[in-house]
Structures are given as structure tokens and as C-alpha cells.
Amino acid sequence: MASEMMEALMALCEEKHIDQLYLIDRLEQSLAKSYAEVLHLTYGARVTIDRTTGKIYVYKLVPIEESFDDETGEYTEYDEIDVTPKDTSRIAAQHAKAEIAQIVRNSARQQIFEEFSQRVGDIITGTVLQTTPDFTIIKIREGVEAELPHFDLRRYPDERNERPAGERYMHNQRIRAIIIDVRDPNSNQPPIRGERQRPSIVVSRTHPDLIRRLFELEVPEVYDGVVEVRSIAREPGVRSKVAVSSYDDRLDPVGACVGPKGSRVRTVVSELRGERVDVVLWSDDPERCVSAALSPAKVSRVLVDTEHNYATVIVPDDQLSLAIGKEGQNARLAARLTGLHIDIKNESLAADVMRQIPTTVVDEPEDEGGHRCEYEGPTGIRCRNMARPGSRFCGIHEQLAQASASDDPDSLI
After folding, report:
1. What's the whole-model pTM score?
2. What is the tens place of the pLDDT at every residue in 7-60?
3. DSSP characters for 334-357?
4. Contact at 8 Å (CB) between 244 and 230?
5. What is the mean pLDDT of the chain?
6. What domains can you pick out in the chain, each with its CATH number?
7. Do residues 251 and 226 lie in contact, with contact meaning Cβ atoms separated by under 8 Å?
8. CB-based contact 328:238 (threshold 8 Å)
């Protein structure tokens, strides 16, 4: 019987890729604690398992008086007395079952961590197994699951919300997500809420890199590196802007990403549940980049102050609402895409401003601490910015004055 138990243990170790000596050592430690309680042993017990026959031996620990340590107040050496009960198989079977389950669980988590910690940022395709109010469990493959958290951040500010607003998932539904984190099972950090019931792999459908990975799947030129996704600005579930460039001058990067009749970008939009995706051309020239980022609005002129990371955009009167977008969405995404603060003005307001700004600069002695910009708006409110050295105006209004004096005021950016 004991031999059969050892054969079963060894077979299980091979199946679950568990070290045999490690499993037996864990069983001996667990059985020693249990027999010390069952037999009421004051100084504990030591248990050994015969590796060949599987027979269990229990030894009572009796301290040796000469080994008492005055500093620690404990004995360092013990005599062992055989107190093996007649029936050890029942308790051994119970502990073997619990220990094996725990070892298999820890071993599986460690293997998952070693594999998927190298895949953070990769896209995965899985099947929805279970949805709770706080997270969704996604099956990646047999025995490997991931968590898509969507906690209420007002109640749990330390958790994540990686689900776009409005998305709901059904059982057995196939979805794609990007891996953003893999929890280390051996980490010393405090456990997260409900960690034992939650997989160690954390995925997201709100991360901007999800769009990058989807374009790599759908656009061969992006996968091959000929077309590069330079920047992504996203409001999950609503709208995104993607700036692309090409290393081949003969290839249109926007056309490659959109595809014939929009087939490629339509597949990405379908995977994102109808989220609008604008693909624009990236340029190293910040003026052209801002102009393209505000698409589909038409831009008349862009004035960029690289020193202060600021861009003033002038658009036709009928394009102002389109350039700003609903609740400022288009301008907000364009600012994230380019990394510039964008101020949008229509041509009528810009013309009024330029008419009030003198085109000549009068040399005046500059105060030791500098002075404010002398521009006053239509309402008589003076600009709060500091004037540039040697000028009466700040960078923004000085650029508008220079633009008003340019030879080609109607040129497009």
C-alpha cells in the first residue's frame, strides 16, 4: 500500500513538473506538525518517509540537558524516540492531498510568472470565463487565466480599471487584450484584495499600446517595421488618434494603415467595439504635426513656441467647433498626440488681435526684473504673460504680430 502511494506521488510529480525530494520534504514537515499536536509532544516531532517503500516513521524529540543555551533559552540537541502510530496512512493521505494541492498551485503560478513576465506588452486572445462586478476572468489557454480588472476606483482607489466605459462581456466571448502586469507569487509585497481567487496575469483594454498591437496584427507594413506608429492618444471606448510615419518615401503610411476602402482600420475599430480611430501623418515639423493632429478640421496657420511647449492654431471661422470637438475632445487628443499645449483661435478673433498689436518694436530699457506683455485684448484686459527680453510682448502675441506682417499670410501649414 505504501509502495503504491509512493508510485502515485512520483507519477504526480512527473505530471505536474514538481521536484520529488521537495514534495517529500514538505510532507515530512507538515506531518511533523500534525503528529506533535495529535500525540501532545511538548518539544515537537520529526517525521521521515522511506523514499522506497513510503513507510512513515514518527520520532519524539527529547531535549538533551547539556545542550541548553542560556542566551536563547532553548535546547539545541535532541534525542529521538520512535513513537510511530500503528495507523499513519490516514493522516498522511490527508496531508499529502493538501500539500500536493498547495505545491501544484504554487508551481503553476511560478511557471506562469516565468513565462508571461517576459511578455508584458504583448497582445493575447482569450475567452471570457467569468464576470464579476470588479473583474473579468479570461482564459488564455488550458490552465492559464488572466484578470481584466474594472474596479470602482472611488471605492477601491488602489485597484485598476482597465475596461473601457460601456463595454460588457458575455460568457465564452472571445476578446483581445494587452498584458500590463504579472504578479510575482514569491513577492514580499502585501497581498492585493482577493489575491488567492484572482489570476496573476493582469490585462487591459484601455492601454494605448493595445491599438499599436492591433495595427501590427492587421497591417503587415507596421509588423515589418516599414511603417511606425509614432504616437497614440486615446480616450478608451470613445475616440483615438494614431500618428504614423514611413521609412519608405514611396509608401503612404496613412493609406497603409487605413487599407483598401478602410478595411484594415475597420477591423481595428470592430475589435475596439466601435471606438473611433483617426490615423494621421506624423511629422518632425511641429507645425505640420499639430495641423495633422487636428484633423478632420482644416487649419489656416500654426504658430509654435518650442521654448514654452505651446502652439497657437488659427482656423477658419466655420472650422472652430470641429477643431475643438465635442467637449474639447479633438483638441485634447491632439495635444496628447503632439505633446504641446494647443490654443485654438478662429480667423476673426486672430485678425482683431493682430490689428491691435504694433508691428514695430520700440527699443526700451528693460526693467531689472522684466515687465509684462503690453498687449490688451478687445475687452481691455491686459495679457498676464511676461514680455520677452528686448520686446514689449510675450512669445504668443509677438508671433501673432510677426505673422500679421508676413508676406504670405494665407499660406497653409
Report:
1. 0.68
2. 777 787 777 777 778 878 888 888 888 888 878 888 888 888 887 777 888 888
3. HHHHHTSEEEEEEHHHHHHHHHHS
4. yes
5. 82
6. 2-113 (3.30.1480.10), 120-185+198-207 (2.40.50.140), 229-282 (3.30.300.20), 285-413 (3.30.300.20)
7. yes
8. no
